[in-house]
Specification:
The protein is of the alpha+beta class and about 180 residues long. The protein folds into two domains: about 100 residues, Topoisomerase I, Chain A, domain 4 (Orthogonal Bundle); about 70 residues, Gyrase A, domain 2 (2-Layer Sandwich), CATH 3.30.1360.40. It has four helices and six strands; from the N terminus they run αββββαββαα. α1 packs antiparallel against α3, α1 packs parallel to α4 and α3 packs antiparallel against α4. The chain is elongated. The chain starts with a helix and ends with a helix.
Length: about 180
């Protein structure tokens, strides 16, 4: 019964870490990634469709993204969607492909990205602590219902705290790695 609570706690906390890593991908680092275009939708015959579903999206070098639509009549729609998304660059349409040229990041932009990463990490820590509270509530209910003893209650809450501490440390390590990646010139 308690082991199930521990496992559920670990699973939920692991999901918080995975969500944090996924969220980090939206941040700009020194090298541009195609994930900065995630979430941009294009009108494809009346249906709002993800940009990566209407053409190939590639990053041939550290500062350029090339979008090659499968149908040339989508070029203007893709161009408009990128402009509306306000990702910090203007699309260049040459009639065949759309190229996005990202200028090298300034020190201020790098610091701002690092600050955003810190905020994302703090949000993940809050989520982890919420999982801890939920697990501790379950343990307290078991104790209240006399399903576990006082000693088992204390040990279970200590175990949940150990699990929480390890995932908070994991979130901090993830942030340190991301911060180093962002600040590296």
């Amino acid at each position: 019964m308690l082991n199930e609570i521990y496992q559920e706690t670990k699973d939920h906390m692991e999901k918080s870490i995975e969500a944090l890593k996924k969220e980090y991908k939206t941040l700009r680092t020194g090298k541009v990634t195609t994930s900065v275009l995630d979430g941009i939708k294009v009108d494809y015959y009346g249906t709002m469709t993800d940009l990566n579903q209407v053409g190939s999206v590639l990053a041939p070098d550290a500062t350029t993204i090339v979008i090659n639509p499968w149908e040339k009549n989508l070029l203007s729609g893709i161009e408009k969607a990128i402009q509306n998304a306000n990702i910090g660059v203007n699309p260049n349409n040459d009639g065949e492909v759309i190229k996005l040229f990202f200028p090298p990041m300034t020190v201020e932009q790098r610091k701002e990205s690092a600050k955003q990463a810190k905020g994302m990490t703090d949000d993940a820590k809050v989520a982890i602590r919420n999982v801890r509270k939920h697990s501790n509530d379950k343990i307290k209910n078991l104790h209240k219902d006399k399903a576990i003893t006082d000693d088992e209650n204390k040990k279970a809450q200590d175990e949940v705290q150990k699990i929480t501490d390890s995932f908070i440390a994991k979130a901090d390590e993830t942030f340190k790695a991301k911060e180093a990646e962002i600040l590296k010139v």
